[in-house]
Design a protein that fits this description.
Elements: H1 6-37, H2 44-69, H3 77-93, H4 98-122, H5 127-146, H6 156-163, H7 173-190, H8 193-203, H9 205-210, H10 215-241, H11 253-262, H12 274-293, H13 298-330, H14 333-347
C-alpha cells in the first residue's frame, strides 16, 4: 500500500473543494426549502427514517463506484441483492444458524461479482450487456427458490442489523455501518496502490497496461467488491423492510447509479471520490423525502432522480466544451499574428 502522504491529502482536499462543495450547497438548499415548505422535513423522526431509507442506496453506490471508475458498469447489483436476501431469508426460515446463513449469503454475493468480472474481463464482453443478463439470471434464481412466495419473519439479529439504533441514541446502526464502509472505501481508492490502479485504468486501459498495472485483475476485483456490497445491501434490506421476495430492491438501481455519477464519478471512468458519492446519496435521500412529504408518487420521485442523472452525466462534457470555446475565442487570429511577428523579430 502507498502511504497516506501529505501530497495525497492535498490532492483529495482539492477534489473535495471542486465538486463536493457544490453538493453540500445543494443539500443545504433542499433542507432549507424543504423545511420552509413542510416543517416535518428536519424532524428527528423524519431524519431517522430518511437515513434508514438511504442505507440500501448508499451501500449499492459504494460498490458501484470502483466499477464505474474503471470505465465499466454493473447493472446486476439489484439481482445480487435479491438473490442474497432470498437465500438468507430462506435458510433462516428453515432453521439454519443465522450467522451461517449470513456468511453463505455474502459468499454467494462474492461469487456473483466474480462471475460478472470473469465474463466481462476474460471474455472481453460488454459490461452493460453481461451484467444486465446476470441480473436477470440472479433474479430468476430467487424466483425459483421462493416459488413466488415471500418471507416476512426473520431472526432478531438480522432485524437489529437493519433497523435498530445505537444504544442510547436515535442514530440507526446501519447508517453508522455504512459510514464505516465509506471510510474504508475512501482509503482503498484514494490511499492505496489498488485505488491508483483503478483511476489509471479508468483514464486509459492501454496506458495502464503499458505501465505494468494488472488491468484484468483490478477490473475483476472491482466487480467482486460490487457484488459483496450488493450482498450486504440485501442483508440490510431484510432487516429494514423485513421481507424477502424475488425482485426485491429493483427500484434501487437508478438512485444508486445516480448517486455515483452525481457524486462526481465520471461515467467514462478515471475520476471521482467516495465522499462525493456519500454526499450525493444524502442529497437524493433528502430530495426523495421532501417530495414524499408533498405527496409526490413513487413514479414522480423516480422521474426527478432520472432528471438528476441526465444532468449529472451531461454537465461535465458541456462544461468542458464551454471552456474549450472560451479558449478558442481568447486565441484570436490577431493574437496569433502578433505572436508570429514577435517570433520573427526575435529570430532576426
Amino acid at each position: 500500500m502507498v502511504p497516506w502522504t501529505v501530497d495525497r491529502m492535498n490532492n483529495l482536499r482539492k477534489l473535495l473543494v471542486r465538486w463536493e462543495l457544490g453538493l453540500v450547497v445543494l443539500i443545504v438548499i433542499v433542507m432549507v426549502v424543504g423545511q420552509i415548505a413542510d416543517g416535518d422535513l428536519l424532524s428527528s423522526f423524519n431524519l431517522q427514517t430518511t437515513a434508514l431509507n438511504s442505507v440500501i442506496l448508499l451501500c449499492l453506490a459504494l460498490g458501484l463506484a470502483p466499477v464505474i471508475m474503471t470505465g465499466d458498469i454493473d447493472l446486476s447489483v439489484v439481482g445480487t441483492l435479491a438473490l442474497v436476501g432470498v437465500i438468507i431469508g430462506d435458510m433462516t426460515a428453515h432453521g439454519v444458524n443465522t450467522w451461517l446463513a449470513i456468511g453463505i449469503g455474502l459468499a454467494i454475493s462474492l461469487l456473483c461479482g466474480l462471475i460478472n468480472g470473469l465474463l466481462v474481463v476474460l471474455f472481453d464482453l460488454p459490461a452493460l450487456a453481461v451484467t444486465l443478463g446476470t441480473s436477470g439470471a440472479y433474479t430468476g434464481v430467487s424466483f425459483l427458490i421462493l416459488k413466488g412466495l415471500a418471507i416476512s419473519t426473520f431472526p432478531s439479529v438480522i432485524v437489529s442489523i437493519g433497523s435498530s439504533n445505537l444504544t442510547g441514541t436515535q442514530i440507526p446502526f446501519a447508517v453508522v455501518l455504512l459510514l464505516v464502509f465509506a471510510v474504508i472505501m475512501t482509503f482503498l481508492l484514494h490511499g492505496t496502490v489498488f485505488g491508483k490502479a483503478v483511476f489509471a485504468i479508468g483514464g486509459s486501459r492501454k496506458a495502464a497496461l503499458f505501465s505494468g498495472i494488472a488491468v484484468n485483475r483490478v477490473r475483476i476485483l472491482t466487480f467482486v467488491i460490487s457484488g459483496l456490497m450488493a450482498g450486504i445491501a440485501g442483508l440490510l434490506f431484510l432487516g429494514n423492510y423485513q421481507t424477502a421476495q424475488a425482485g426485491m430492491g429493483a427500484s434501487e438501481l437508478l438512485p444508486a447509479v445516480t448517486a455515483v455519477i452525481l457524486g462526481g464519478v465520471s461515467a467514462y471512468g478515471g475520476t471521482g471520490t467516495i465522499p462525493g458519492v456519500v454526499l450525493a446519496a444524502a442529497l437524493l435521500a433528502l430530495l426523495q423525502s421532501a417530495l414524499g412529504l408533498h405527496n409526490f408518487s413513487g413514479e414522480g420521485q423516480t422521474m426527478a432522480v432520472g432528471f438528476l442523472l441526465i444532468i449529472a452525466i451531461g454537465l461535465p462534457p458541456i462544461s468542458h466544451k464551454y471552456q474549450d470555446w472560451k479558449r478558442r475565442r481568447s486565441t484570436s487570429p490577431l493574437m496569433i499574428a502578433n505572436a508570429s511577428l514577435s517570433g520573427s523579430e526575435e529570430g532576426k
